[in-house]
Amino acid sequence: xxxxxxxxxxxxxxxxxxxxxxxxxxxxxxxxxxxxxxxxxxxxxxxxxxxxxxxxxxxxxxxxxxxxxxxxxxxxxxxxxxxxxxxxxxxxxxxxxxxxxxxxxxxxxxxxxxxxxxxxxxxxxxxxxxxxxxxxxxxxxxxxxxxxxxxxxxxxxxxxxxxxxxxxxxxxxxxxxxxxxxxxxxxxxxxxxxxxxxxxxxxxxxxxxxxxxxxxxxxxxxxxxxxxxxxxxxxxxxxxxxxxxxxxxxxxxxxxxxxxxxxxxxxxx
Length: 269
Known about the structure:
CATH architecture of the largest domain: Orthogonal Bundle
Largest sheet: 6 strands, mixed
Shape: globular
Distance between the termini: 29 Å
Structural class: alpha+beta
Number of domains: 2
Number of helices: 8
Strand content: 15-25%
Number of strands: 11
Order of helices and strands: EEEEEEHEEEHHHEEHHHH
Helix content: 25-40%
Protein name: HipA-like C-terminal domain-containing protein
């Protein structure tokens, strides 16, 4: 289960780089790296505003989805949620951030799926059919199901990666990663959360299929659905364990409603 470190950590030494949001949200996503004892770690913040500070909760979403993927027994990048003191442009902030390690194995290099498609696809081959031909249909179908359940708005072609090892001539698709721009990420207040329609079909930046996560369900074979584990009501406690003093009850209840109600739609396919 994704780990939460609630004791405040001094990470003020991290150097943050600005990555402009691709989802049309106000603010900026910031990332940093560190290398300690030979281990490289990757850090990212929730949506950041230079005046207001950290205004989003994308990092908490990563932990929630991390645990959901654990329940479904789906390979994915694992995250830690860390209570940290950080410094950005001379100002100190206390916030929760995400940390992860590299999913590449020794000797592997990575390339975004959209770039790999451009150089390897056959004429007029759809993104989905290309992935089928490469032997990645199970992975892509699983991704489509999960992205519908969490309403992932940012599954662009660089949020799916291909890992290559030229020496051993191996090729594999990377574990699922980057689920911050999902769930209630656009709800900055409890009022926003309460009024959010959890079944709404929002425009999503999908590389596979259409911009509708609901429409993309039609790509799945209803006789061979990808999720092999059933989600149960009592899984809620495992998914949100330790988050009660980080995320309000209103957000927790609404996020769970979203996950479970959308899962039931998937199950009825």
